[in-house]
Amino acid sequence: MASTNPRHFHKILAIESSCDETSAAVYCAQTKTIQQKIYSQVELHRAYGGVVPEIASRSHLEKLYGVVEQALSQADCTLKDIDAIAYTRGPGLVGPLLIGACYADALAYALQVPLVPVHHLEAHITIALHEYQALQFPFLALLVSGGHTELILAESLGHYRILGSTMDDAAGEAFDKSGKIMGLNYPAGPEIAQQATTVDPQEPVPELPEPLKGKQTLDFSFSGLKTAFARAWQLHKNQYSPAAFAWAIEQAIVDALLKRVEQALDQHPDIPLVVAGGVAANRCLREKIKTCMTNRKQSAYFPSMQYCTDNAGMIVHNAYLRLTKLSKPEVLKQKVQPRWPIDSLNPW
Ligand code: KG4
Ligand code: ZN
Q1: Which ligand 1 atom minimizes the distance to the CA of 171?
Q2: Which atom of ligand 1 is nearest to the CA of 284?
Q3: What value does the mean pLDDT take over residues 264-284?
Q4: Residues 105-120, mean pLDDT to the nearest whole number
Q5: How far does residue 277's CA lie from ligand 2's centre (Å)?
Q6: In angstroms, what is the C-alpha Rg of the chain?
Q7: Between 232 and which of 93, 206, 271, 319 could a Cys-Cys bridge form, CB atoms 3.0 to 4.6 Å apart?
Q8: Residue nearest to ligand 1 atom 10, measured at CA
Q9: How far is Cα 265 from Cα 268, in angstroms, rounded to an integer?
């Protein structure tokens, strides 16, 4: 295996295939820039109202080669210039993960360069370090996507403490399931957010319960809220406008997230906050979090949209951090790990 001396990593190629985005990215150490290409499978899964793992695996297999070629061409290089290959080892869907892992493994073997397994959630968080020079460990991270809702204390690279996580549905899932009830397409988060902006401030809106009200916990729960929403929709569909329903569910989800963030910040004051994952695109969440952090005289960092949804840019940047700041990649027995808690992550 080639050396892990940081000076030898001029260019790294990464593959992301944990769910329904096929993505490849190249990191150039000299310019500290990322070139990435993402192919989203969302249209393939829309008819089913969620991701179908078998369809996702087949599509990754079909698209991966082209996506890698495009990322290399955007970075103005070829495979001969690549000094390490990174891939998403987990967490994620086993079939899609295996497609990316086998591809990356074969490529690293053929090129005789190190293979770097990356933790998908750590990468979602650490990409903020690429975009914001002022950000440093330790910080609090709110990771909110279609599959994850976690509050994480990021102590240093490789060291994370899960302060709270969802007991059932993820925040994005709560948006998507509520949208499905309203007859919206998957993924419904963006459309709910859009409809919510059209609500008339004077118009009545349905009342929804606060999840885990009065419970002393940093955990989240959204399935009860979804059931309450389904019932409200069934009983009062003609009483309130769709925009009023969209507004009510958006507020309920955002306020539940904000409340836990506030509680976590009370326990860990004086640290900044990173908000990552697809739901971080939600404008209402962004505004409420920014206000909360301004009041606390702390900063809130939101990775840009291209690095919020699943992407290989965050994987390649995380691989670079690990290769240059930690010792050397561990040879892990299992190529993929579909369930891989971030607090059990080996820092190498
Ligand atoms: O991180 P992501 O792209 O994929 C994974 O789940 O891994 O997150 C997708 C989720 C979906 O549930 C989608 O509805 C939600 O993020 N989402 C939003 C918004 N944009 C995407 N939810 C609320 N408001 C948005 N603007
Ligand atoms: Zn993700």
Answers
A1: 12
A2: 24
A3: 95
A4: 96
A5: 6
A6: 21
A7: 206
A8: 146
A9: 5
From the number of C-beta atoms within 10 Å of its C-beta (0-12, 13-18, 19+), residue 322 rates as: buried
Residues 6+ apart with CB under 8 A from 84: 2, 9, 12, 13, 108, 113, 114, 115, 116, 319, 323
- Which pLDDT belongs to residue 11? 97
Band of pLDDT at residue 1, cut at 50, 70 and 90: very low
User: Which domains are assigned to the chain?
Assistant: 6-125+307-344 (3.30.420.40), 136-298 (3.30.420.40)
**282 ligand 1 Cβ < 6 A:** yes
Ligand 2 centroid – CA 97 distance (Å)? 12
Is the separation of the CB atoms in 23 and 16 below 8 Å? yes
How far away, in angstroms, is 192 Cα from ligand 2 center?
20
In this prediction, residue 6 carries a pLDDT of 56
Residues 74-91: b if buried by 16+ CB within 10 A, e if exposed: ebebeeeebbbbbbbbbb
pLDDT digits (tens, 9 = 90+) for 227-271: 999 999 999 999 999 999 999 999 999 999 999 999 999 999 999
Res 5: pLDDT: 60
User: How high is the pLDDT of residue 314?
Assistant: 98
**DSSP string computed for 233-293:** HHHHTTTS-HHHHHHHHHHHHHHHHHHHHHHHHHHS-S--EEEESGGGG-HHHHHHHHHHH
Q: Is 41 in the pocket of ligand 1 (CB under 6 A)?
A: no
Q: What is the pLDDT of residues 48-67, one digit of tens each?
A: 988 999 999 999 999 999 99
Ligand 1 neighbour 146 (Cβ under 6 A) = yes
Ligand 1 neighbour 303 (Cβ under 6 A): no
C-alpha 227/C-alpha 168 separation (Å) is 12
- Ligand 1, residue 172: give the atom nearest the CA: 12
pLDDT given for residue 332 in this prediction: 76
Report, as an integer, the average pLDDT of 163-168.
Answer: 98
Distance (Å) from CA 249 to ligand 2 centroid: 22
Atom of ligand 1 nearest to the CA of 146: 6
Q: How many A from CA of 146 to the centre of ligand 1?
A: 5
Residue with tokens 């409809």: 195
